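Saturday, quiet lab. Running sequence design on the structure tokens for the scaffold JK sent over.
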């Protein structure tokens, strides 16, 4: 293999390490984002639950007030019963009193229902709040991990980028431009080995895409230090020593 292809392979080696570090960082950042989104959604759900609880409590207060005023009315009607003069008046007040009592009974069962709902809601809300708190703590822990990974990766990344610069310096502009374009497309996997399928036959494969390769491409690689790309995947081909 010629000097240029050797240099490109060395560059690829550095490139792949850089890509790997960036990928690891991106994966961690993504998981932080996902976790944070989960917490945000849970917090929104909590806010809705709090609103529902508030609405129930307002209804409960209204029923309580209604009950109080009806109870006061009932005492007043009872007093009236003692002061009416005629049977007709007595019957009218009594019927009012009975209606009011029936309403009170209905309201009392409504109040009980509301109280049961409020208590259940409060309990659920407390549990959900605790769960969200735990999830939020997980976000904080993940953020800490990412920050730590970032600082430990940063030194390594700086060193690799310096190595990359040095490796690029030995290559001509055309080779470098091609390398960068393919790297962009294949996440650093720029180079593809040429594999001879059978030791006695002139049949070759591109190791990048596993498709067969014209024999003249492989033969050219054996004799020249040239930029030859795979017709199918576009990677730069190289022939390992001893092929
Ligand atoms: Zn290929």
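Result came back. Writing it out in full:
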């Amino acid at each position: 293999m010629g000097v240029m292809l050797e240099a490109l392979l060395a560059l690829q080696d550095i490139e792949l390490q850089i890509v790997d570090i960036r990928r690891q960082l991106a994966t961690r950042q993504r998981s932080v984002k996902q976790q944070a989104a989960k917490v945000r959604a849970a917090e929104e759900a909590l806010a809705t639950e709090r609103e529902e609880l508030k609405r129930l409590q307002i209804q409960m207060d209204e029923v309580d007030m209604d009950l109080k005023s009806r109870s006061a009315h009932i005492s007043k009607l009872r007093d009236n019963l003692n002061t009416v003069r005629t049977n007709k008046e007595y019957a009218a007040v009594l019927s009012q009193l009975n209606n009011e009592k029936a309403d009170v009974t209905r309201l009392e069962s409504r109040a009980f229902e509301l109280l049961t709902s409020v208590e259940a809601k409060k309990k659920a809300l407390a549990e959900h709040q605790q769960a969200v708190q735990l999830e939020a703590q997980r976000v904080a822990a993940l953020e800490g991990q990412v920050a730590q990974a970032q600082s430990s990766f940063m030194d390594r990344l700086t060193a690799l980028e310096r190595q990359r610069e040095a490796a690029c310096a030995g290559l001509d502009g055309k080779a470098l431009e091609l390398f960068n374009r393919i790297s962009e497309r294949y996440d650093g996997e720029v180079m593809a080995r040429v594999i001879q399928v059978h030791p006695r036959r002139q049949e070759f494969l591109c190791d990048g895409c596993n498709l067969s390769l014209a024999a003249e491409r492989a033969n050219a690689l054996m004799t020249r230090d040239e930029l030859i790309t795979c017709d199918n995947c576009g990677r730069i081909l190289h022939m390992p020593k001893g092929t």
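Notes for JK: The chain has two domains: 3-171, 190-238. The chain is about 75% helix and 5% strand. Ask whether to fix the surface positions before the next round.
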